[in-house]
Structure formats: structure tokens, C-alpha cells
Amino acid sequence: MERGAPLTGTVTLSRATPAQRDAVARLLGRRPRDGATVSVRLEDVDALLRRSGAHPEGLAAGVVALTGPVRDRAAAASEEEAAWAAAFAVLDSAVAERPELHAWAAGLRGTGTVRRIARDPLVAGELLTQLTTVLAALPTEPEPVGRFAERILGSAHALDTDRSLTGLVFGAARVLGGVGDGQGAGWRRDVWASVGLLRDELSSTVLVLNLPTARDTPTGRMLAVLHEAGEPGVITLRQLRQPPRLRAGCTVSVCENPVVVAEAADRLGAEAGALVCIGGQPGVAAITLLRSLAEDGAALRYHGDFDWGGMRIGNVVLGRLQAAPWRFDAAAYRRSALHGAGRPLTGEPVACAWDPELTEAMRVTGQAVEEEHVLDGLLADLHAG
């Protein structure tokens, strides 16, 4: 009856006790049988109940009278699935116009993550509603996680590390920020920072060289002194609360790897052009500084590694900032790869948003070219700049 099956056919009780065998025999008016099992045709029981008047409505109604309503498992499962679908509907709607989140949202549903966390569709609906509220606000301008949670969810603790919601938001942040696989506290801070959420203001830093800044802020004065000496400096996000003002009309070169900054300082010193190093996937401090420089009228140009990780980073930098590629296109790649400066290109290909021809050139050539191998050209530009 729970399966919604008709009450027909034979049911068998194995290892029946003598008392059970006797009870069935007396019910059906047949002689007791030897053996360890008892079999009964359900049609016989139904006919007996109706004919005898014990329960004129038959076996199914008799079971309900004796045990109470019988749960229809198929109908209950259907209702539960409908409730889960309703819970996920709010998330489906939220990511419908955000294709970058489609695979992530499908993973939440397919892996059963939300079901394991929430257990109940109603609880899941509340959780996913909160999640979509957060997603609608990401990425955000840099701000502490607690302040963001208070502003968006009404509680500064809503995204504390022990909350179920926090884990779901973290997964979405990895996708939105384009941060690769990793582990450890530093990596987690980078993931949060990639969408503007700060666990603190001192962990997010950016490396710079020779920024021609005004001396009207503490950070500006520090950078001016370093510029005079031709020495690199590290700026924290806290120091960018009052971002340094840049001299108008300046070109700021942006690189991926610290080795470019070190070589520029060693070879060119104070004569090197303004240089910012994002150190891989750009953190909040790097994005904040570069946006501030662009607002001051600086012309940004970016160079990174010619590998698939470099393409991902380039898509973020050139997509989120007003920056132009700097020796970072198909022609520059072919010149570098032609001289055998690379290593075998491995990993999953990444489409290059600013120069689709570059992706194809890298596929065909199969070489990765890191910034260390093209330093002479970069430094020549920095000297001229």
C-alpha cells in the first residue's frame, strides 16, 4: 500500500512462529500447515473480510482502520522533490543571467551539498534565498566581510566561518574571482578578496616600483622616498584607504611576477618607469590601487605569463580594469616562442578574451613562455617609459 501497489498476489512470511501459522489458519479456516513459512493470497483475505462482515469495505480499508493512514511513499517522494525544486528555484532564477555561475549552481544541486547541509526543503529555501541575496551583491567594492554581511544580510556574523552559508558563498567566490585550486588561510583570503570581501586589511598587499606620487598622504610620501632611491615597496590595503595621487599623464606598467620588479630595480633603479606587480591572481589591494591610478588618469598596460594560468589572470585584469595588453598578444607570443624560450604548455586551455588569436597560437605552438624569459623587452619598455 505504501508503494501504491494493488493488494493482489501472494505474500509470504518466512520463519513464521507456530502461533503465527495457527493464526493464519484460523483466520482463513484452513488446516495448520507444517514448515517455517506461511503464504497468504491477499485476494482471499479481502474476500473473507467482505463476506464475513468483519470489515465490509475490504482489506485496504481494514488496514487503515487497524493501523491508521498508510503513507503513500511515491506521492510523498514526489511532494518532497517538488519542495526541493521550489527551494532551488530562487537560485536558478538568480544565476540565469550569470553564465559563469551555471556549472557551480548545477554542482550544488547534483552533488547534494545543500541537501546534506539543510536536510529539509524549507530550511534549504531559506538558505538559498540568503545565498542569492549575497550573489546579487558580488563582486563588491572592497570592504570587510563583517561589514558586508551586516549591510546585505542584516547580521555581521552571517558569514562567519562556522556558518553553512559561508561555505556556499565561498564556492561562488572562487568562480566569480577566477581563483584556482589551493589551500591554506592565505589562499582562502585570496578567494574572498577576489570578490571584494576582506578578512583583514593587512594581508592583502601589492608590490610597486617608482610610482610618481604626490606627498600629500603618508603612503604618497613613503612611495616618493622609495622612488628617489629606485627601490620597490609593498603597500597594504589599509594604506590605500587614502590612495596616493599619481602625476597626471603617467603610464603604469603592470606585471604578473615579482622577478620583473626585482630586475627593474637592479638594472634601472630610479630610471625605471612606474611598475605594479599583482603577484598572480590580483588581490583586493592590487585592484584597488590600479583602479585608483586609472581614475587619476594613468594609462595602464599589462603583461603576464604566456600559459593557461596567465590567460585566466589576464582575463581578470584586462576585463575588470581599464588596461591595455603590454607585449601580451599573439605576435609577442610567437616572437618569444620562436626563440625557444618556453617550456611545454600543460593544463586545460583558456580562451583569451582580449586576443582570441593568442589562444590558437598557444594551442598550435604548445609552449608556455614566462615573464622571466622576456625580461629584456619589458625592461627596455620600462627604461624608455
From TrEMBL:
Source organism's superkingdom?
A: Bacteria
Q: Where's the DUF2399 domain?
A: 235-382
List residues of the Conserved hypothetical protein CHP02679 N terminus domain: 7-212
Q: Known NCBIfam families for this protein?
A: TIGR02679 family protein
Q: What is this protein called?
A: TIGR02679 family protein
Q: Which organism is it from?
A: Pseudonocardia adelaidensis
